[in-house]
Amino acid sequence: MRPLAVSMGDPAGVGLEIIxxxxxxxxxxxxxxxGDADALMRAxxxxxxxxxxxxxxxxxxxxxxxxxxxxxxxxxxxETPGAPNGANASAVERAIVRGVEACLSGAASGLVTxxxxxxxxxxxxxRFPGHTEFIGELTKHIAWPHARGPVMLLxxxxxxxxxxxxxxxxxxxxxxxTAQSIVDTGLxxxxxxxxxxxxxxxxxxxxxxxxxxxxxxxxxxxEIEIINxxxxxxRALGVNATxxxxxxxxxxxxxxxxxxxxxxxxxxxxxxxxxxxxxxxxVNVTLGLPIIRTSPDHGTALEIAxxxxxxxDSVRAALDMAHDMAKRRLSA
Length: 332
Fold this sequence. Notes:
The chain is of the alpha/beta class. It has eleven helices and twelve strands.
């Protein structure tokens, strides 16, 4: 199997020092980094990490298993830990693009994206809310015979929860939520659970939007007018999906035993239980695309960048999950 591609993320954050630590420790799925090899070495030196020898490659196809290969994407300016520099935004964005291209060409079996500093990218003209939407745009022209994403899924050993709306301001969620968007999300999640996670008969639970799932309309009508009709459509399409349930009762252990994935209606409704259950080991997965993409479920952690104390649990989990998903797709 081809190695995974890892895009460098913002070099002012913790991503490079984490991937350096993982490379030094070994016992990880094979990967190659798309980023500035010199910046990787500087990050390792700051964190006092003894890197294995770097093999600089000119093409993703040249990446070899068992070696620390780097497809160089040079920074425009020397990085300063904790202080993202807009001059490097182009290299950060280009690393993601090259990672997607490597996956589409078959040179990489999946893409793991290290965290980006979104505000810095926005200031430089980046027009997407985040990785999920950007990678969806980069792959939209590729034929895909399954339900189409991008759908964001947060996954850890205790919970899988997808989002019906992603980086949507809370004040706009109700306006943007439609039965069709929930149906589309449910179809993507159901197919991905089988294809990418090996769940034969997926069970999906839908969160309500309002307190007490609307209390039969007394606390809001989105459940009656949008979410439950979407659940009925999903069931008609053969997906085992529940009507809206109160979100405050869906995430304890007994409730989680009743479904394989939940669909939350907005960002924090998904991320709060996911991070509470497994703060260090969570993975952000983009579903419904012709490539595999995972990411650690944390940001750039600018406040600790360069200090050598960032934990590598989530990046390791993202590598492992992408590797496992790639193996399942190869064997299908």
